[in-house]
Amino acid sequence: MKILYFYKFCILGGVTTQLANRLKFLRGRAEVHFAFLGDYGGTSAFEGYGHVRILGTPEELKSYIQAHDFDIIITIDTYELYEALGPAEDNKLIIHEVHTTYEEPLQKLAESQGSLPYHYVITPSEYMKNLLKGIGIPGAFHINNCLDTDLFRYEPSPGKWPPTILWVGKLDQHKNWESFMNIAGRLNAQRPDLQFMLVGGYTAPEEIKSMLQERADKLGLRHFKWIPKAGYEEMRHYYSMAAESGGVYVSTTRNESFGMTVLEAMACRCPVVVPDVGALPELLSDNLSVSLYESGKEEEGVERVLRLLQQKGLREGLKALGEQKARNTYSIEEVGKAYLGLLERLVEERARLTAK
């Protein structure tokens, strides 16, 4: 089986990381190619793999497709693919994967689904499957994202750290960093011994970076660390450090199609406190749901954090449950088998339909 994945941004994290994780399972089972419109440092995630291309225009992509006899062509939230398809691809299996929760591309998909030549839609959560159904795109397939559980694992941290409240993400409205700073201020007023660590935001405008530091100073956060940029392989160190310090990972996101940073933290035995938005309740089902707080209710988030800081038994139980779920449900091997099985089934189904 020969597969082409196409995505707009080759950037470390997000979709690029997910594609690199899939490659670890698919390699040797299929011939997999990856194409991007632009490289923003993400090609390193593929560790020198030979079938990674930066194809900056639909014309370059069209030439690449014509030079290879792909069985499956998959675009991930990227519409430039359709400009590159021609009559020769009419009998190929075309899949549109939806990982974004942003309104504009979702609305575009809903409005143009009758005219776009894709055959199936895949998305990483039941939440997204239901969201797509609600905007008029029924029948999407749900396959979880996968996590490299060899990379994301707990490891003891050198040195002694104060209890650390960790936040990871871009400094944008979607990840809602300002809400985290509000929560940090409330926690700091009750527990001045806490350390607050924010990882991410390297690409943010200078104005936003200045606002972050000014906000930390105004709140009187004596123990505040901002790490603008961290490599993907470094992240387990931060999750593990927060876990070992007796701290917590906090999310303040407005929506998530899946929630990779939450899963990464869980795999590293770091308890989490996250809003009940998007697909996050799927990651934190059953006994793990104690980690959820109502979105927008920062005081409830503060209460959840303080409870995990104070109740050692609850904390240890959630650490074990989170790690177990990450490894048993979302490993590359477990998800990879389901994903490849779905692709094989869709290829067979498409072949039957075109033979009629």
What does this structure look like?
- The chain has 13 helices and 13 strands.
- By secondary structure, the chain is α/β, with parallel strands linked by helices.
- Helix 3 links the parallel strand 4 (72-76) and strand 5 (93-97).
- Helix 9 packs across helix 12.
Brief synopsis:
The protein is α/β, with parallel strands linked by helices and 356 residues long. It contains 13 helices and 13 strands. The model has no long low-confidence stretch (mean pLDDT 94).
What keyword list fits this structure?
356 residues; alpha/beta; 7-stranded parallel beta sheet; 17% strand
Spans of 5+ residues with little confidence (pLDDT < 50)? none
First and last CA, distance: 22 Å
Cα-atom radius of gyration: 21 Å
Any idea what the shape is? elongated
The largest sheet has its strands arranged as 3-2-1-4-5-6-7
Order of helices and strands: EHEEHEHEHEHEEHEHEHEHEHEHHH
Q: Strand portion, in percent?
A: 15-25%
The biggest sheet, with number of strands, parallel, antiparallel or mixed sense and barrel status, is: 7 strands, parallel
Strands, total number:
13
**Fraction of residues in helices?**
40-55%
Helical segment count: 13
Kindly state the mean pLDDT as a whole number? Answer: 94
What structural class is derived from the secondary structure elements?
alpha/beta
